[in-house]
Amino acid sequence: MPAVIMKTCPLCDAVPFHIGRDRTGRDAICVQCERCGLFSITEQALCILEPKQKPLLSAYCRRVPTGPEAPTILSTNIEELIRTLPEYTPPEKLDNLLVLIAQMTAGLGDYTTFSAKRDYPLLIARDADEVTFLRSGLTELGYITGTNDGFLVTLDGWKRLEEIRKAGRASNRAFVAMWFHESMNTLYNNAIEPAISKAGYHALRIDRHEHVNRIDDEIIAQIRRSRFMVADFTGQRYGVYFEAGMMLGLGRTVIWMCDKNELDEDKLHFDVRQFNFIAYESPEDAKTRLYNRILAIEGEGPGQFQKPG
Ligand SMILES: [Zn+2]
After folding, report:
1. How is domain 171-297 classified at the architecture level of CATH?
2. Comparing C-alpha atoms, which of 257, 259, 255 is closest to residue 247?
3. CATH class name, domain 90-167
4. Ligand 1 mean position to 62 CA, how many Å?
5. Looking at residues 92-116, what average pLDDT do you find?
6. Which of 9, 137, 233, 299 could form an S-S bond across to 33 if both were Cys, CB 3.0 to 4.6 Å?
């Protein structure tokens, strides 16, 4: 039985803290590894696992938040789990590494506890060597300094981190989260898009047909790159709630909108009712009020959003 003879982590070959039978009674093995985190994998999945899939699954398992149930790798979900991972460009990887090093630093001038050997899955890297390569890039840029025995973020590095944080803020794009149904076209074409353009921003509308109603990496990346979000809740779509929640989590402005009739009928989920909604009566009304609201966010600092009205 693999659970008995296995000595190393099936994903990264490190010696794990724990290897044992999955306690839920599935035909699976539960592994607790310092690189890959806590996960379960079925014996069937173990049999078909390809070497190139291992670092990606390791990244998946380590990056998902630990909830009540650990991620489970099945023979049928390997590709699906891998597909959820974002693909970063080399400059994005450099930034991500800098952010991670800083997150694992207690305070200014302290050494980081980040370890390429242990933490490479967090960067979706192939192995520790890839991270070592990126690390030398950060050293050349002057963002970190030190040796293998200890390294830290320089003042230039902290400046760069500030730039990364503000990257979304400097953007001229506005993400539009709404129900993309033909009944909403007039609102978009005559109110939302013109109000955003008039205020000097570019409206970003993701074509739902391409994304089959899925909140995928492309949508998440576009949200991250946007200065603010216009979220119209008319039609009560789950995607709009998710996207607005994500934007709030990023500490950026969400402009809340809804058809007045739906607001009056109390259709909004109670979680969002405290926000200052633009309850419009017509596209013309929506356009004017949205435009004014966009101008109002200019004075806000990062980390703030609409206060209850
Ligand atoms: Zn592992």
Report:
1. 3-Layer(aba) Sandwich (3.40)
2. 255
3. mainly alpha
4. 9
5. 91
6. 9
